[in-house]
Amino acid sequence: MTDNFTDWLRERSEPDWTAVVEHPFTDALFDGSMPDEYMSSYLVQDYQFVDDFLALLGAAVARADRYESRLKLAGSIAVVTSEENTYFQRSFEALGIVESDRVDPELDPATVAFRDLMRDTRDNGGYAEILTVLTVAEWTYQEWAVRAPAKPDNFVHAEWIDLHANPDFQEWVTWLRSELDRIGADLDERDRARCLRLFQQATKCEIDFFNAHWD
To answer: Does this UniProt record's set of keywords contain Aminoacyl-tRNA synthetase (predicted)?
Structure first.
């Protein structure tokens, strides 16, 4: 029997979970074969999640059930608005992405679907539901990033990997999982099923997003 809630959610989200963390897109990042046009479209679309992701983190701060959880969640907001934002801007410059594509691109259907999920969870979800979507978004990225055998030469690729494989990020994901495990231990069957549906939906959104930027 699965020992904790997050493992229970992940096991019931296969084979989609493995399809995300072992996606060919990530393999191309690792070995340096990622075409600039693919990386450009991916980063342009990924940047459109930042505002909604911050709002989701803000909703988690508001709905958390204890002070220490609010502090941890608030600290993650600073990371998104500093190190990660700086990476995006430097990468956009290196890839020659024009300002209009940075701030107001045409959105892919996969981007729209994931943003809609974040917004609906932010507006209508409780703490457990918000944690569920946050955990999928962060845990899947940690899982694929730690698979990198070595850092590629291109900083656009290398730093994107490192942002999701460094010790601080790994500690953040460990905390997210433990927090969702803590909250999940007290959920009834209906609420656990609701979290599972969200976990599976968010995992599918991750697959669709990678697929949208991979031939």
So the answer is: no
In this structure, which amino acid lies at residue 59? A
Q: In terms of pTM, does the model score above 0.90?
A: yes
Scanning the structure block, which residue is given the tokens 């410059």?
93
Contact call for residues 206 and 20 (beta carbons, < 8 A): yes
Nearest-angstrom CA–CA distance, 184 and 167: 25
Residue 157 and residue 4: Cα distance in Å, rounded?
A: 33
User: Which parts of the chain fold into alpha helices (H)?
Assistant: 5-11, 16-21, 24-31, 36-47, 50-63, 67-79, 85-95, 99-103, 109-124, 127-145, 155-163, 167-184, 189-212
Helix axes 24-31, 36-47, angle to 10 degrees: 120
Specify the pLDDT at position 69.
97
* Mean pLDDT, the chain cut into blocks of 10 residues (215 residues total): 84 98 96 94 96 96 97 93 92 96 94 97 97 98 96 94 96 98 96 98 98 92
Q: Decide if 48 contacts 107 (C-beta within 8 A).
A: yes
